[in-house]
Amino acid sequence: MNGDRPIYVLDTNVFVEAARNYYAFDIVPRFWKSLIEQAECGQITSIDRVKVEIDRYGDEDDLKVWADSSFRSWFASTDEGAVLDAYRLIIEWANEQQQYRDTAKYAISRDDNADAWVVAYAKANNCVVVTHEGDQPNAIKNIPIPNICKAFDVRYTGIYKMLREIRVKIC
Question: Comparing C-alpha atoms, which of 135, 151, 146, 138 is closest to residue 95?
């Protein structure tokens, strides 16, 4: 928490969907500036593992360029003890769940998958996860972020609700 205000930790899909669709850099540059402003005042962050996923989109990709040049300072490290402990618990929990296929359990624990790390960081630092994923109580082929959040009592929300809660105006 940032005083009495929550800190929001953004999942990869928040950045990617915004860049590719509704807040494209050439259409709504103010959105990207507002993310930086909110990060500067301690309201939002993301993690190093999300940055790695963004980097996979290519060297000349607008999102990667923006992340490298403007948001790099706000990709927090997941190498802290409390985050590592929370991550371990999440992976143990996932492997114990009979509902999910083995491929889903493997996918959530892969080094190149930031999902469990985002929740672990939020759990360790009392943050709110921001994702486009919805609650999928009957999922079997994947383990959605909201399902993990519910299991670990971590609050999650979507980008629009977060923008309203922190009173961002894009005009």
Answer: 151
By DSSP bridging, strand 156-157 and strand 128-130 are parallel
Q: What share of the chain is helix, strand, coil (3-state, %, to 5)?
A: 55, 10, 35
Strands 75-76 and 44-47 come out as parallel
pTM for the predicted model, two decimal places: 0.94
Give the per-residue pLDDT at 3: 60
Whether the Cβ atoms of residue 164 and residue 28 lie closer than 8 Å to each other: no
Which residues touch 13 (CB under 8 Å, ≥6 apart)? 131, 132, 133
One DSSP character per residue, 84-131 reads HHHHHHHHHHHHH-TTS-HHHHHHHHSTT--HHHHHHHHHHHT-EEE-
Residue in the block written with tokens 């706000």: 74
What does the pLDDT look like over 20-76, one tens digit per residue? 999 999 999 999 999 999 999 999 999 999 999 999 876 568 999 999 999 999 999
Supply the mean pLDDT for the chain. 93
